[in-house]
C-alpha cells in the first residue's frame, strides 16, 4: 500500500489533470494572447524537429532553457 502522502500527491495530481482536460473541452478557456517571445519558442521547437539542434534554423545559439521548446517539439511532432 502506498504511503499516505504519496496517495494524496497522486490524487491531487490526477485531479489537476482531469480539471485541466475538462476546462479544455468545455470551451470556457481560450488562448488570450501570445507573449513577445512566443515566436522564439516556436522557432526552437521547429529547429529541434527539423535539425535536431537547439537554435534558430539549425544554428545552436539560444539563451532559453530547453524544457518548453522540447515540449512544443513533442506536440508539433505528432
Can you walk me through this structure?
By secondary structure, the protein is mainly alpha-helical. The chain is built from three helices and two strands; from the N terminus they run ααββα. The protein has a two-stranded antiparallel ribbon with strand order 1-2. The N and C termini lie far apart (37 Å).
Quick overview of this protein structure:
By secondary structure, this protein is mainly α. About 60% of the residues lie in helices and about 5% in strands.
Which helices and strands, and how do they pair?
Blueprint lengths: L3 H23 L11 H14 L3 E2 L2 E2 L6 H10 L2
Antiparallel strand pairs: 1-2
Instruction: Give the fraction of residues assigned to helices.
Output: 55-70%
Spatial order of the strands forming the largest sheet = 1-2
**What is the general shape?**
extended
Average residue-wise pLDDT: 84
What is the gyration radius calculated from CA atoms?
17 Å
Counted by DSSP, the helix tally is 3
Low-confidence residue ranges: none
Number of strands: 2
Order of helical and strand elements:
HHEEH
Describe the largest sheet.
Answer: 2 strands, antiparallel
Terminal Cα span: 37 Å
Structural class: mainly alpha
Strand composition percent: 5-15%
Oligomer: single chain
